[in-house]
Every structure is written in C-alpha cells, then in structure tokens.
Design brief:
The chain is an alpha/beta fold and about 425 residues long. It has 15 helices and 15 strands. Bound molecules: zinc ion. The site of zinc ion has 4 residues, from loops.
C-alpha cells in the first residue's frame, strides 16, 4: 500500500471535530438551528455546544441564523458554529458575554464583529474577532487531550496516512504526542511566537517520528470570507476590504523569517491570494535566510509573473508549495462569485509542475482537516477533474494525471 503524507492538517482540532455538531450538510439557517436543537437536547451537562462546517456560500439564501434564533435553541450555555474555513464564527449571546463583547465593543484589530443596521451585534464574527470569541469558550479538560489526539491519529490512519504535518501545533502538543508513542511520523509547525520555546524543549520530546518543522504565519485570510489578499479586487468584495486583507505586512513577514532563521528553522506561510503569495516571495528574497524548507500553504492564486520566481526560490531556499486541491471542490461557487475574471488561474498545479516543481518533493498535497474531510481521494479527484460531478470545472487546463496527483501525497524516503 502506498504510504501517504498529509502535508497540512490540524491534528487536535481534527480530534475535537470528530465530536462536534456536523453542519456541512445544512442547506440554510434553519438546518443549522435544527442541528443545534438536537445537540442541545441530547447533551444536558451544560458543556459548550460547538458546531463546524457551515458553508453559507453554498446556500440559496446565504444569511446566517439570527442571534435571537440561535439563542433560543442553545439557551444559556456558550454555543458557537464555525464556518467550514474556521475564519468566521456564529456565537450565541452567552459566548459573546463570556468574551466580554457588547454592542458597544469596537472591532478588534484584524477582525470584524457583524452588526445589524442598528449597530447591534449579530453574533457573526470574522477573523481575529472570531478567535476572540473562540478563546473565551472553555476547552475540553486537559486530561481528554490524549484521547482526542489518539482518535484523530486512528482516523487519519484509516485513510492511508503514515506521516502528517500539523500546521498550527499547540505548544503543549509535543509532550502529549510523545507519551502516545504512536507510529505516525509527525512534523510540528507552531505559530512563530511559540517557536523559540518549542525549539528549546525539542531535545526532551523529539525523536525519529516526532519533530519540529518550523514556524507558522498567517499572511492573509480566506477566499470564502473575501479576506484572502488579492492583487486586484474581488467581483463581490466588501467595501471595507475590496481586495481582501493582508494580515501581515512584508516587514512583518521578514521579521518572522528572521526569528525562525535565528533558530535554524524555516517558516510555513498561509497565503491564499496572489498578493499574499507575492508578499512571502518578496520577504524571502529580502531576508535571504540560511535555513531551508520554507513553505507556502494554500496558494490558491499565484500571479503568472511569480511562477518562475517560485521555481527559483525552490532551488535557493528549498521552498515548498503545499496545496489542498480538495478545497476546490467546496469552493467552486465561492470562486465563481468572487473571482470570475481569473478562474483560469485558480490553483495552478499543472503550471507549477511544468515550470519545474517536483510532485511529492516541492509540491505537496494535504487536506487541511478538519476544515474539509481528510479523504485523500477528494484532492485526487479535484486535481484530476477540477470539478464535482454536479458542477462546472475550474481551470481545466490545470488538471494533472491521477498518477501525478498521488505522487503529491506520497511519502518520499
Ligand atoms: Zn490549515
């Protein structure tokens, strides 16, 4: 059997998601409310009610449930429903209260609190505002962490994965993983702010299966929330950020690269829009780090002018492009609405390979679970067909063969 590598996942969140209210099949706000209603009745211990997988872009009516309706089904316990991309969240009043948010609260830097025409909170929170709410919701008790991680590892193994990269590893993760002694080979990519401490303790927990990959940064948001940073505006971009938003300036990215490089480690940069991708390339060329293995995560749009540069930086800094074609299957409608003028260059896998990137070496596939399900077949289908059976194809010219697609998932060496 082929030994597969999942190059982009969120292990602990995958474990947690196995027990969440599953909302990906909801066709509208009323389905979301019904799903929470069932969950609220079946768990009466007062624990937070958490759901995931909402995809309003695929609904006929893309409006979220109202705060009043969400409160009615969830009651006094904190409740939150994540949009499938984990960048937007619907909170109930109890969760908003726990986060100290009121109608008078200003938007946090890098985030937006949804408000109605009267300025009252709608419960929908974007980017850093979503994280603000999420951080106030009690986590599962520490003693459950090992069990959740075990469940996640067992689940990923059933899909053929023998290696995985965690692209936002929590500082506590390595010690718990070390004790699990799981046969999975695991590479950890904590946020840059946690990198130095984890590098310092690595000799206590790292071994031939468990290691520190480098630091993770978020250069932009997501396509779904129109916060991925683009070189030209979205067809339906919001007035506040018509071409998305950079969450980090080039100077910020340079400083992150320097911090990691000082530890002899590379950076993995979440960059979905072509402006974010370019920002990372500019920063790499400016800093000229000594470490290798830099990564661009997602890269849904790359400006044609940057393709050759990426190939050059592959040679020079061991740059890796890590993509999740499975996102394409879910994003087709959002792409058609957001970037109808540049659909032909979405996820340019074939262009990257033709330019010189080696599948499985410089070009890796992953799923980004739990943002989408971890089945590798989804990414294979997306890379080969560029469509769902019921949809139009996106950039058919970027299709690759099934053999090449599996190579992008295959563990080398
Ligand atoms: Zn991710």
């Amino acid at each position: 059997m082929t030994r597969l590598r999942e190059a982009h996942c969120h292990l602990y969140q995958h474990g947690r998601s196995l027990g969440m209210v599953q909302l990906s099949d909801c066709r509208g706000a009323s389905d979301v409310l019904a799903a929470f209603g069932v969950s609220a009745e079946s768990t009466t211990d007062g624990s937070p009610l958490i759901g995931q997988g909402i995809r309003p872009d695929s609904w006929d009516d893309p409006r979220w449930p109202s705060l009043a309706a969400f409160d009615e089904v969830t009651g006094d316990r904190p409740a939150a429903a994540w949009c499938f991309d984990y960048h937007t969240l619907l909170a109930n009043s109890s969760a908003l209260r726990a986060a100290g948010l009121t109608d008078a609260s200003p938007d946090p830097i890098g985030g937006v609190l949804g408000r109605d025409a009267q300025g009252k909170l709608t419960g929908v929170a974007y980017e850093r505002a979503a994280l603000l709410v999420w951080d106030a919701i009690p986590e599962p008790p520490v003693e459950r962490r090992a069990r959740l991680l075990s469940a996640a590892l067992d689940d990923l193994r059933t899909h053929g994965y023998v290696e995985l990269h965690d692209l936002k590893a929590q500082p506590w993760l390595p010690v718990v993983l070390r004790e699990l002694e799981d046969p999975m080979k695991i590479g950890l990519w904590p946020l840059v702010k946690d990198l130095a401490a984890m590098a310092q303790s690595a000799q206590e927990w790292s071994n031939d299966r468990l290691g520190l990959g480098g630091g993770k940064i978020f250069v932009d948001g997501t396509l779904n929330s129109r916060t991925a940073a683009m070189l030209s505006p979205y067809a339906d971009g919001p007035a506040a950020h018509p071409a998305g938003m950079l969450l980090m300036t080039e100077a910020d990215v340079c400083s992150a690269i320097e911090q990691a490089d000082a530890l002899g480690l590379p950076i993995a940069a979440h960059a979905i829009g072509d402006r974010a991708v370019r920002t990372v390339l500019d920063a790499l060329e400016r800093v000229k780090p000594a470490s290798r293995g830099y990564r661009i995560e997602h890269a849904e749009l790359i400006d044609p002018e940057d393709i050759d540069r990426i190939v050059r930086l592959c040679d020079r800094f061991g740059l890796i492009v890590s993509v999740q074609p499975c996102h394409l299957l879910a994003d087709i409608e959002a792409l058609q609405r957001a970037v109808p003028d540049r659909l032909g260059r979405v996820l340019p896998i074939r262009t990257l390979i033709d330019a010189g990137l080696a599948p499985g070496v410089d070009l890796l596939f992953g799923s980004d679970t739990p943002i989408v399900r971890p089945h590798p077949e989804d990414s294979i289908r997306a890379a080969v067909d560029r469509k769902r059976p019921d949809s139009a194809a996106i950039a058919q010219c970027e299709a690759i063969s099934e053999t090449t697609a599996w190579q992008c998932f295959t563990q080398m060496g």
